Amino acid sequence: MSVEQAAGVGDEALEVWIDQDLCTGDGICAQYAPEVFELDIDGLAYVKGVQDELLQARGATTPVPLPLLTDVVDSAKECPGECIHVRRVSDKVEVYGPDAE
Length: 101
What we know:
The protein is 20% helix and 24% strand. It has three helices and seven strands. The protein has helices spanning 3-7, 28-32, 69-78, and strands at residues 14-18, 37-39, 45-48, 54-55, 62-63, 84-88, 94-96. Strands 5-1-6-7 form a four-stranded antiparallel β-sheet, covered by helices on one side. The chain has a three-stranded antiparallel β-sheet with strand order 2-3-4. It is globular and about 35 Å long. The two termini are 19 Å apart. The model is unreliable at 1-8 (pLDDT under 50).
């Protein structure tokens, strides 16, 4: 079963954000999905925008490209700070991360 099937997201648009208050700065997310996550000079992880820019605003989200979904989900699962949240764009329901049902 694919990650998409397991979450029941199919081709539904997803977005990801990081709660920097919980980020431990381990950089696991940047190792799994460097196209989506990056550590800043403050030692915390942030999501990157579609133009590869670092999004430092609190609660900033970025789309999850379908080819990178597994890497983003693995990042959320392996994050020691449990600070990575993946949710559906349509209804903002978290499908991966600490608040997922």
